[in-house]
Design goal:
Strand content: 25-35%
CATH class of the largest domain: Alpha Beta
Shape: globular
Strand order of the largest sheet: 5-6-7-3-8-9
Number of domains: 2
CATH topology of the largest domain: Rossmann fold
CATH superfamily of the largest domain: P-loop containing nucleotide triphosphate hydrolases
Order of helices and strands: EHEEHEEHHHEHEHEEHEEEEHEEEE
CATH architecture of the largest domain: 3-Layer(aba) Sandwich
Structural class: alpha+beta
Helix content: 25-40%
Oligomer: single chain
């Protein structure tokens, strides 16, 4: 990090951040707002952020997650000093590199090399400092002869390569990234993930916005969930993923039922499924889950989704009953049905969690009846000497030449 800040040192502090976009403004108002560097306080319009407090300390990798339209990108624009808040204050300490868009801070008429120098100058690095970094930027971006071509000739993936390469070589105290890794080929994304992991392990601080729950679970030390412009979770990554999934499930239920939610929220215990058990059969190396389902109402067809995740919140496997069946037909309210599903034990050592979603199937639509996250957990002992999630039977061998 550029200023050798100590771990847990405060790098970013946002207090009571609000952002409202006026529904309409007169041209003269817009002109004087820009001239005087002020934000219009016009009544009405859309409020996209509402009283958000956030701190980022050195050594953290903070992930911000939320549905489309939740206000994530607006919040990052404010934190990155690109958007002015309607209310609230942001204090920044140290050098902050911000990637809020593939061409943010770049000039499409400049070459990749010229844009690299431009990006570094924005971060307060002089020409001599950029000269020392340019070889590493060129090597990481891996653009070949395009590095000296105008940015307007680049594909979105090539722009992503240049932007990320510049951001990770300016020795920033905090790097802010908004979905940039979602663009580009798979091999470059993996290269970016490896670099983030390497820098994180050496103490680099990141603030990431993503829709990818696995990215959140794999790289972040803290999760912030944004919904409707408000912060509804700030803390454990695993708990944050649970909150985010619950929000998505509730919203899906409302949209599928014409605005009236018929789905239960994620509950600490199952209600429609009771008497469940999970047994391991050593002869077949598989687990067998059993439970009793009590129908909450009569329905023509009911399907069951089951999923398995590890303690980091990463989905290991899931099955959609409406796609693969079997489904319950002509269900009568109050009737009980015995459920059973099996899965092979290819899991490596660790704690795992079962979740389910019960859907009523009406034509091509599914109406959620109940969801229960982590209603059952179980431990798998590690005996293979491998690390990860699943046992692929990795084996080492050596040959004498």
């Amino acid at each position: 990090m550029s200023s050798n800040v100590e771990r847990d040192h405060l790098l970013l502090e946002a207090t009571n951040i609000c952002k409202r976009y006026a529904s309409s403004l007169r041209p003269t108002t817009v002109f004087f707002d820009a001239l005087l560097k002020r934000t219009s306080r016009a009544v009405g319009g859309k409020k996209v952020l509402d009283g958000i407090d956030l701190t980022v300390r050195s050594g953290e990798t903070v992930g911000i997650i939320g549905r489309n339209g939740a206000g994530k990108s607006t919040l990052l624009g404010i934190l990155g000093n690109v958007i002015e808040p309607t209310e609230g204050k942001v204090s920044r300490y140290g050098r902050i590199a911000t990637l809020l868009g593939l061409t943010a801070g770049f000039n499409t008429s400049f070459t990749g090399r010229e844009n690299a120098y431009l990006f570094c100058s924005i971060q307060g690095i002089n020409k001599e400092g950029t000269d020392r970094r340019i070889a590493d930027i060129i090597a990481f971006a891996d653009l070949g002869e395009y590095f000296d071509q105008p940015l307007r000739t680049y594909s979105s993936g090539m722009q992503s390569r240049l932007a990320f390469a510049c951001a990770v070589h300016v020795d920033a105290d905090l790097i802010i990234i908004d979905e940039t890794l979602a663009v580009g080929d798979a091999s470059f994304r993996m290269k970016c993930y490896d670099r983030i992991r390497e820098m994180r392990d050496s103490g680099q601080t990141f603030l990431l916005v993503t829709h990818n729950q696995n990215l959140l679970a794999n790289f972040c030390t803290r999760a912030v969930v944004i919904e409707g412009g408000k912060k509804i979770h700030d803390g454990s990554v695993f708990d944050g993923i649970e909150v985010y999934k619950s929000v998505r499930s509730d919203q899906d239920a409302k949209s599928r039922s014409g605005g009236k939610s018929s789905a239960g929220k994620a509950a600490p215990g199952a209600t429609m499924i009771t008497g469940f058990s999970l047994d391991y059969q050593s002869d077949t190396n598989q687990y067998v889950f059993k439970g009793t389902f009590t129908a909450p109402r009569s329905a023509e067809c009911i399907a069951f989704n089951f999923g398995i995740r590890n303690s980091a919140g990463i989905s290991v496997c899931a099955i959609d009953g409406s796609e693969v069946g079997p489904m319950l037909q002509d269900v009568v309210e109050g009737d009980e049905y015995h459920l059973s599903f099996t899965f092979k034990n290819y899991l490596l050592g660790g704690k795992y969690f079962l979740s389910y979603l019960i859907n009523e199937v009406v034509g091509d639509a599914t109406i959620p009846l109940e969801m229960s996250q982590n209603f059952f957990n179980f431990d798998v002992a590690s005996v293979s000497g491998q690390t990860g999630i699943v046992d692929l039977g990795l084996a080492l061998s050596s040959l004498k030449v």
